[in-house]
Amino acid sequence: MPTAKPAPRAPVHHPLFARLYARVSVAAEPTIAPYRAELLTGVSGRVIEVGAGNGLNFPHYPAAVSEVVAIEPERLLRQLAVSAALRADVPVDVVPGAAEALPVKSEAFDVAVASLVLCSVRDVPRALAELRRVLRPGGELRFFEHGRARGAAFATAQRALDRTVWPLLFGGCHTARDPVGALRAAGFEIGPYRRVLVPPKRPRLPTSPCVLGTAWRPPEDGA
């Protein structure tokens, strides 16, 4: 697959949301951490993580990982990720960049990680094409994403949110995207995955429908 020639893109800068996310994500980590651990169990070799945020995945990378290249476009979150990288048990290099224009060579990674990021990328098909480009043929994509609910009423409410100010207030987040469908459309082979509610459903507490699983760039993929 030839190296992409990314078009210039405006920088991502959501300073108010970044500060909110940094606080909320840390507070929610007791609930989210087990999913992060499951997401990264068994990962090895060279890894690229897109939308690394403030680096909460970093403590969960196994010792078999030789290097993590962590892409984060938002300036404040990237600074926090750099601090988290210094505490990680595996080598982590935090790099500015967008998922739609990854600043790395083609077929350079054994594993890609997309964790709570596809909701907010500007162009999902392009971002997934980039992940497919940078994975070696047969390379693995681990994903943990929130998205469209299966119930009609909930899904309708999500679409309504996405047409309002929700993406503007929450760093470009869209609640009604279909990550598994998008991965299939991008040419990935879908492996095992499961649907989870985060946090687990409790009376009067809002939950987010998520999917946690694995996909692969087809081994014979040379396009």
UniProtKB/TrEMBL annotation:
* A Pfam family reported for this protein in Swiss-Prot or TrEMBL: Methyltransf_11
| SUPFAM superfamilies for the chain | S-adenosyl-L-methionine-dependent methyltransferases (SSF53335)
Domain Methyltransferase type spans what residues? 49-142
Task: List the keywords (alphabetical).
Answer: Methyltransferase, Transferase
Entry GO MF terms:
S-adenosylmethionine-dependent methyltransferase activity
The superkingdom of the source organism is: Bacteria
Classification via InterPro entries = Methyltransf_11 (IPR013216), SAM-dependent_MTases_sf (IPR029063), Thiol_S-MT (IPR052356)
Listed under GO biological process in this entry are:
methylation
Return the PANTHER family for the record: METHYLTRANSFERASE LIKE 7A (PTHR45036:SF1), METHYLTRANSFERASE LIKE 7B (PTHR45036)
* Name this polypeptide is given: SAM-dependent methyltransferase
